[in-house]
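note to self — DONT lose this again. spent like an hour looking for the file last time. sequence + predicted structure for the chain T wanted, 226 res
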Amino acid sequence: MIPHVQGSPFVKDLASSALWHTPPPHASQRLCASLSSLLASLAPILFTRFLSAFWNTIIASYTSIPALRLDKYLLLIRYYIRDSFAYLKSHDWDGGLMDAFVQIMKGEWDEAKGDLGPLSPRDGKVPDGVRYHVLDVWVDELDVVAGVDGVGVAVAEWLMEPVRRLEDDGRTKVVKGRSREVLEDERVKGWLDAEEKPSESGGEAGGKRWESGVEGEDDEWNGFED
């Protein structure tokens, strides 16, 4: 078992120190891609624990990241979202796995441990800067992973649910407004309006349903524009 937040060396030790000293921009890009690609090799039960530890660590340390190095961490977040979607797709958009992923993003996967999720609507411990960036890249990265075939209606509904929750229950007007912009994206409308295609494997949103077991390289990156 991967321990909780304090036992997440892949972010707290390796990623933090490596991103801190890596010269920008292409070396940072390769490092972020390498770190996020770790997800693909994990079994589902480890994927959820690993991802939960990642988000708890990023959220807990976000406000201590110097502004001049923030771009590197935002890129890491982008890659983790992309590779999370890629993992879900590789598992045929399994319903149970997507449910666990959405719960992690909302900070509700393991509430007994005080989980922090980047799309938690009301948790004051989650910096709005994390929410903004996740919302900014949510549709872009899903579009990259989905490709020309897009995603089915059920998958789109499932993955937009935490965004709808933010629009309804977000702590600030800015968060609600950003969430509304995501939902009004023409790509999202296209996915939600598309005729649902039956899955070849059966399952609730994709293939067979997985139970989480938890109770209760691209174009060169040159940094973000100012």
